[in-house]
Amino acid sequence: MDNEGFKQVEYSIPESPGVYRYFDKNEALLYVGKAKNLRKRVSQYFLEQRSPNRIRLMVRLIHRIEFTVVDTEHDALLLENVLIKKLQPRYNIRLKDDKTYPFLVLRNEHFPRLEVTRKVQKDGARYFGPYTSPPAMYTLLELVRRLYPLRTCALLLSPSNIKKAGYRPCLEYQLGNCKAPCAGLQNEEEYRELTEAVHQLLKGNLGGLIKSLRVQLQEAVKRLAFEEAHRIKEQVEMLEKYQARSTVVSTKIHDLDAYALARHRDRAVVNHLHVLNGAVVRSYNLEFRLALEDEEDSSRLMAQAMLEIAERYRHEPREIVCNVLPDSPPFPGVRARIPASGDPKKLVDLSLKNAFFCLQETLKTPDQRQNATRSDRLLLQVQKDLQLKEVPSLMECFDNSHFQGSQTVSSCVVFRNGRPSKRDYRLFNQRDSAGIDDFASMHEVITRRYSRILAEGGELPGLVVIDGGKGQLSAAREAMTALGLGDVPLIGIAKRLEALFRPGDPHPLMLDKKSPTLRLLQQMRDEAHRFGLNHHRRRRSKSNTASELVNLPGVGPVTVRKLLEAFGSAEQVYLADTEALALVVGPSMASKILAAIKGSQEGPKA
Q1: Residue 566 three-state SS
Q2: With 267 labelled, which of 205, 330, 381, 402 sits at a CA distance of 20 to 30 A?
Q3: Domain 394-537 maps to which CATH number in 3.40.50.2000, 3.30.420.340, 3.20.20.210, 3.40.50.920?
Q4: What is the Cα–Cα distance from 415 to 397, expressed in whole angstroms?
Q5: What is the pTM of this model?
């Protein structure tokens, strides 16, 4: 592959952490590498002019580039290590020794110890890691030992040995680093609470621990035990700085296959991750091109993909997790499931991430990839972040405006393919709800909008955005459910903290402030607010100018309505001649209006 060939595929490579693989024309693997930014790293091979001869030779042999996206640079390093050892690429340094990244292990024994090891065994112990940076691991080990006084000695502390040997507390006890279970000064129940807290910390489940420590901190402050409070405060700060472990290597998973399906229009991609002995050893994307007139069922696509991948690699899964269940069990005795949490859920999310990136690549022909539209990538990111079943090509956002509880106006803005479609914007003057009642106003506008779409056979949105919190969202959900549209995705965006609320979920979804999904939702909300506010101002202005006509002698409300319907504003009425006015209100009334206008000392307000 030369520089020109690379430029055709450059923009299909994501700017994300991951692992890249180079293949020659015979599909032989040449090289496996890791990157914090895949596109920048791969482009260096083709655009760098001063590469060593060995690299230039390899680049000339590259025929195809394959990549696997992961969540962090740390995960990329781990996955690269696994793939090099398993696949032994021609141009990689050979990793022939058994040395691997270190783990932390809680031994399966009375009063378990926390130690460092490089060998994972099926001995009932609990392993955590691997850690790509030994200094960072030892820092974590020191943190754990400062937080929780676990023993470090290798004594066999069975109940009978403790009674028989008569151990005496050592220097670690004097320093406060151990509570001397060897001397019977700490029972197993108390020690088990410590090891369970360590287990939760090393798993990354820090929320409960931090909450418990904060309660202890408040109690210490109330007792005026400021030294203890300072120590607990330091523990909380250390825990908050600690990050959870890797996704691509897990000691709890031994043989598992993860599948994820992503669809957009007439394209679909199924990504497959195979996990063996706790590590991702294979990633593969299977692409589908659907006939435009054929609405392929996602469950059938998933079953077909599972069989196709199993045949390609001559591999029959033992355990399957996925984001879409197959319509029929593809393998006898093996049940597929959609995981709700834990390591399997993380692997399905990682698989879906890879499927999305591959789908983005298939959305355009090779000649068009460099100019791939922002909207396609943006909508795929929205689908992923909000966990939608389909890409939301059509989205609508609603907002309410009022003036001191009167003249309530609701606005609906429409976005197609991530861009405003102003010709589809709609405004609603509230009929049923009165006063300041945002919930009733939202219920009314949702009912009016979608009852009309259903009656006219219009297109339903892939996502409905509500400007407001849980109350407005609940009112909108009630209206949608009453219309039989309970399956239409609905989300609320609150102005405070920019939190996203979903029906039935008590916890808000907090996206990164720089997230393209959040920015799009903010744009929709701001556009709905601007559109509704402008109309509200025009309506109030029209009401004010109407009052000017009412003040003219001999002109009543019925005549004002006729004049405004005919001329559009009070200013145009003032500018009209006798003939134009006579056509609307008759010659007699036209003469009275002109006489009143001439006698008025104030002109019309614009």
Answers
A1: helix
A2: 330
A3: 3.30.420.340
A4: 8
A5: 0.47
